[in-house]
Amino acid sequence: MAPSQPSLSDSDSLKRPALVLASASPRRLALLGQIGIVPDDVVSTDVDEEPRPGELPRALAQRLAREKADHAASQRQDAALIIGADTVVAVGRRILPKAEDEKTARACLRLLSGRNHKVLTAVALRPTVGWVDGVANERLVETSVTFHRLTDSQIDALIANGDWQGKAGGYAIQGAAAAHIRQIGGSYSAVVGLPLFETAQLLRGQPRRQGGWIA
User: Fold this and answer.
1) Less CB within 10 Å around the terminal CB: N or C of the chain?
2) How many CA atoms are closer than 13 Å to the CA of 44, on its beta-carbon side?
3) Is residue 163 among the annotated active site residues?
4) Is residue 211 part of a domain?
């Protein structure tokens, strides 16, 4: 008797589920590429990022990462794993906004001048209903960043550069602001937008399939 052929379900169970990045951020996509990970799909999510009354920075980052991943997962029925992430910049309990205009960016830089602040980046993994073996998991990474004391002309130059647009806290560590950051304690990639070591660890923790995302 000839050996039986594997059924379609057996074959499907060996395939690597699609990897989806639930973020339109080009920085997060580039960071994944840095460690050899290319998502099968990239989607933006319509999530209200305003802090809730009394919500602390850590809780906000974790909630938004979960909501982004959950929203993207709910839109798919195939076997897929969703990566959601969010970055929050805070001085103590004060959450700094994403700078959408020069006034906001300037206010953030003045607040950060000469002091230490925290960058909290959460990453959440969510399997879709089509991948029953997938494991939901998440991490929160806290990084300490210290600016030297900025002069008015230095703040003017950072504003003129323009890379603050849409950035939490009004600066991009991979941009012109790097010339004014005296010290960083923790994950540089998390400040950019995605903690690479922790993300890789989360992916390694998923059930193994052919052509897994990372060694």
Assistant:
1) N
2) 5
3) no
4) no
Choice among 78, 86, 101, 133 that is catalytic: 86
Is 135 within the bounds of a domain? yes
Contacts of 73 (CB under 8 A, 6+ apart): 80, 82, 126, 127, 128, 129
Query: Does 26 reside within a domain?
Result: yes
Q: How far apart are CA 87 and CA 85, in angstroms?
A: 7
Q: Are strands 137-147 and 181-185 parallel, antiparallel or unpaired?
A: antiparallel
User: What CATH number has the domain bearing residue 105?
Assistant: 3.90.950.10
Question: What proportion of the chain, given as a percentage, has pLDDT over 90?
Answer: 87
**Interaxial angle between packed helices 152-161 and 102-112, expressed in degrees from 0 to 180 and rounded to the nearest 10:** 140
Q: Indicate whether this model's pTM tops 0.70.
A: yes
Residue 9 lies in a domain: no
Measured CA to CA in angstroms, residue 161 lies from 28, 30, 88, 135, 192 at distances of: 21, 21, 22, 42, 17
Orientation angle between helical segments 26-34 and 196-204, nearest 10 degrees: 70
pLDDT tens-digit series, residues 45-91? 989 999 999 999 999 999 999 999 999 999 999 999 999 999 999 99
Q: How many domains does the chain have?
A: 1
